[in-house]
Specification:
Blueprint (H helix, E strand, L loop, with lengths): L8 E7 L3 E7 L5 E2 L13 E2 L11 H14 L5 E5 L10 H11 L4 E5 L7 H7 L4 E5 L5 H8 L7 H14 L3 E7 L8 H12 L4 H4 L2 E5 L15 H11 L3 E3 L11 H19 L4 H8 L3 H13 L4 E5 L2 E5 L1
Parallel strand pairs: 2-5, 3-4, 5-6, 6-7, 7-8, 8-9, 9-10
Antiparallel strand pairs: 1-2, 11-12
Helix pairs in contact: 1-2, 2-3, 6-8, 9-11, 10-11
């Protein structure tokens, strides 16, 4: 199926956490409340906490397109609200979640940085999702600001308060995800700080189902981002206990299917473009009319298989042959 540049949907794409995931992208590139140093999409262009209708959405067409994608797809494990920025900034997210739930029993996930969850209207909007996955990269205020570089009003405490507020009203599953970065939040001191934050006062640890320990396998635009050593991840997992799980890279065999055939065709188009001139992931996305999240997936595979190279210039990755 050829992707509509104006479509909210992308995928299904293979995900290390959610199997085959159909993405719904509610935010224009790259509007977010964070400017994370590891972000696969690069630097945030508009950093904001304003909730509003960021895209003009025809709800009737949304339902028609979703039904068509579901009927044409061999497998969808989750329908995920994520994409090119913080999805809870879009004030239509609650109505769209309800629209999805009216159409299908496929579970709905919201992938969020948690910055808006201390607001009652945001919690109300995500209440009907089956799963809310919240990023929690900072074990203390200094590390939180170093990694996530949030809007000035957002603190680690406000993130923790938001998780607590969500857990008081929400009947679905809550997962946390820690992006573990070498020499930043991967030491034993950081591990015990994480445990302290999750066990203090309202005991967040008891309210969550899983803690995913992730690593930056996709390229970001920042030189200081490095994958931690295996022993550091293992130590963090041991400190955080049985709910902590290390997220492994997707093996090549998950792409063996018609999804892999689709990715192969996209890979060829990316290679042809990169032959002509170096380009960023965003430039490739615009040129090919494909959502940037799918482009990032293919670029990672091309890099892994030595079919493409990159160079870093002004905190942007330029891909070339």
């Amino acid at each position: 199926m050829k992707e509509d540049k104006n479509s909210l949907f992308y995928g299904p794409v293979a995900s290390r956490r959610f199997g085959y995931s159909l993405g719904i992208d509610l935010i224009p590139y790259k509007i977010c409340s964070f400017d994370c140093i590891y972000c696969q999409l690069g630097k945030t262009t508009i950093k904001t906490l304003d909730r509003k209708k960021y895209k003009k959405i025809d709800f009737r067409n949304f339902r028609i397109e979703l039904k068509k994608i579901i009927n044409c797809s061999e497998r969808i494990d989750y329908i995920t609200f994520s994409g090119s920025g913080e999805p809870t900034l879009n004030s239509d997210i609650g109505l769209l979640i309800d629209s999805v739930k009216d159409i299908t029993n496929i579970p709905v996930a919201v992938l969020t940085n948690g910055s808006m969850l201390n607001k009652k209207d945001t919690v109300k909007d995500v209440i009907n999702a089956d799963l809310v996955k919240i990023s929690l990269d900072g074990c203390n205020e200094n590390i939180f600001k170093k990694i996530n570089r949030p809007c000035s009003e957002v603190t680690l405490k406000s993130i923790l308060d938001g998780i607590i507020l969500l857990s008081q009203n929400y009947k679905g599953r809550i997962w946390l995800e820690i992006m573990v970065l070498r020499n930043i939040n991967d030491g034993l001191n950081a591990a015990f700080d994480f445990k302290k934050a999750l066990l203090q006062d309202n005991k967040i640890y008891d309210k969550i189902e899983k803690i995913h320990l992730n690593t930056p396998v996709r390229p970001s635009g920042f030189q200081e981002v490095f994958t931690p050593f295996t022993e550091s991840i293992r130590a963090l997992k041991d400190v955080l206990g049985e709910k902590a799980q290390v997220i492994n890279q997707i093996s090549e065999d998950v792409f063996i299917s018609k999804y892999h055939e689709k990715n192969e065709k996209l890979e060829e188009r990316i290679i042809e473009l990169a032959k002509r001139r170096p380009a960023t992931a965003k430039e490739i996305s615009i040129a090919l009319g494909v959502n940037i999240n799918e482009i990032i997936k293919c670029l990672r595979l091309l890099l892994k298989n030595d079919k493409i190279k990159y160079k870093l210039y002004r905190n942007n990755r330029y891909y070339y042959l």
